[in-house]
């Protein structure tokens, strides 16, 4: 079964309609499913308090922020996919009227219907809604086609007013078509009159019948209320001989009038004064009420079934259609002249001719002349070959227009007469004097031609001949000043030619050292210079710098491509998507963007007295000079996620526990003029600087506990920041361990526990070190004890040998030394440190005994430094003797010649240096290089322990003598 609205549309389409088509049309943007709409069938549009647009379609409702669409469906708790009306109330709730009779609303990022808001159950009518209105008390009034009127009170209760209301003891059948509010009363338009309710006492109502009015059922009636005139304007659909009409109801005087119309009108929207948009099944008409009939007015958007019209806060207009999506018209006064195949063959250059017509040249060289008054177009054949050409320059001289460019030559245009000179020649720029031309001839540089030279227009060789050449650099732009100076824009900057002299002015500003594309002189003498994709530099007539337009004031980032200076010395500048107005006052440039289009590429600009003419890839756009596009922008936080979970948006401060400190904010900036949007934000009011970003998502990970006040602003392409700052307050609570009493108690426990651990560890380590020291000392003593029996036994055998051989003198001397040595060993092993003097005496006795034992097989020498106080300098006991013994046994004994041992004592800054040197066979020959005797290892470990127990560093080194020498050196730092 078809829904009533669908049946109605079939009737409307069957009625049809006509609309005149003119050469010019409205300038608009058309948004369809390819741009993000869920469907091209769009019923309604509204703008919320934040400036976002909402569209009701047959595939859900979608929100538009100027650059992207977000669609919501029943999966988001929207009550139905088909939404034919959207209204916002004083609580900033967006109400959606669907076809299934189940109302829903949107607030703070969430949708509500009767399933999650029980107060809406009274409004689930299973009928087609015909009206919606909020009264001054905050009550919601809803009307349905067959079930009457329902009142949802602000406290959540409801009151029903059925279709049959008793009045004056009579039963009236009231089909309600529309609801509105006026002077704190609620008005309901019915089929035969008007019901009037007092919200303070809604059960008391009044019915006023309107003579001559009998309305038929229509679910899609669009009514415009003129409260100043107490008048309703709305269309009537009558499939009768009378046709369609525009109806007026004066609800102050309760009168009804109708104006016949040849079009199937669906609604109307006022523009200004007597001007209105009338939308119908054949497009939209810009109608002045003084015009006798709507059909005589200019119509646009042919073939579009326009279902609703909306005027936004930027004074732009939005038209929803049932077959072509949504149209956006920034102004009814901006027109567009389309050209066939304009995308493949755009309008490249545009020029105001001496006859005040507009000359348009397309990419392929085709010409068109447009009458600036009635916009009629006259096409005529172009003499330019269509392959690999480009028109760069169009200038006028009297009644003649000259055209040059790549492979264009010189085209002379007088009225309808066209002549070409030097065909296929490339001329980037031209300057016209009364009797001659100055041409840029590519690699041939600048060249002067007499006008008579045009008679040789077929002679390309003459064109490139060196005669007449005045400048040899390739030039991209030319300007002949009022002072008859020739200004050249080269790839290397600005050059002036005057009286045959060449001057370079590139040093005036760094920009002037780059490639220059255009130079023009205004009537006030100022010289405007366009630097390729960088800036515009303005000089006065004396070549002093006046001003620069670049990134700092919004031009550079949009790469200005052309400019035009009109009769009033106003400079109009176009970038790829923007139009600027610039003028010089008191040596300062006043600059402002007047128009932005993200969907059209601008190529060139000119102007007449009232309009700007823009050459684009979609034909020509005609823009009134007085037009000023509203470029206000606003920033909003549309969604917030905490630890990945979406949060309901609220104006109150959000309080979070300490572990919910990962926050993601989704931003949106409402701008219908540009997609080039920047954001800046602060997370605390005390922050002195803003952080700028191009992303619309802000991530804050692991935020510390505290109070945060997020502030967000948006900037449009003109560099204007939003007037109002969107703020969001969040408090992240401290965990319990951040409280002072918890911290104090924890510190006490930590200090006590740490002290206890350190104390126990210190005592345990002290005992371990002490035990280790004792073990080392015991091993050293054991080593000495182990050495003593061998030494004693060998020494006694030697003494016995001397007695047997009757060498009693030597035997007695050896016995005496032996007894002294034994006393020293017993004395030294009981001490940790001994004096150097005692150590030297001990070593002397030991070496003398060993020398006698080995039959004087080696010599020894003990040396001390003069500055060494041997009597008062202490070294570890029993440290040197093991190395001396090792030198004797392993170094001297295997030697076939007499050996030698030298022991040196010297003073260092932080201790004593002892060197034990022998000339023995060395560790390599002895095959004992890697073997370290146990006694030496014990000494090494003992020295390490002594180093740890004092500030001194005790260490030892064993060094092999380098060939051809032999032997070993032991270095001790004690």
What would you note in describing this structure?
The chain is of the alpha+beta class. It has four domains: 4-128 and 219-334, Methylamine Dehydrogenase, Chain H (7 Propeller), CATH 2.130.10; 335-382 and 552-626, no CATH class; 638-736, Immunoglobulins (Immunoglobulin-like, Sandwich); 741-973, Heat Shock Protein 90 (2-Layer Sandwich), CATH 3.30.565. 16% of the residues lie in helices and 41% in strands. The strands form 19 sheets. It has a five-stranded antiparallel sheet, with no helix packed on it. Helix 3 (740-804) runs antiparallel to helix 8. It starts with a helix and ends with a strand.
| Spatial order of strands in the largest sheet | 1-32-59-58-57
Low-confidence stretches: 1-22
Q: Write down the overall geometry.
A: elongated
Determine the fraction of residues in helical runs and give it as a percent range: 10-25%
Number of strands: 75
Structural Rg: 52 Å
Main β-sheet description: 5 strands, antiparallel
| Beta-strand fraction estimate | 35-45%
Indicate the CATH architecture of the largest domain: 7 Propeller
What is the chains' assembly state?
A: single chain
CATH-assigned fold name of the largest domain: Methylamine Dehydrogenase, Chain H
Helix vs. strand class: alpha+beta
Mean pLDDT: 83
**CATH structural class of the largest domain:** Mainly Beta
Q: What is the domain total for the residues?
A: 4
The end-to-end span amounts to: 111 Å
Count, helices: 8
Transmembrane segments: 737-758
GO molecular function, one term: phosphorelay sensor kinase activity
Domain Two component regulator three Y: 673-733
Protein name: Signal transduction histidine kinase internal region domain-containing protein
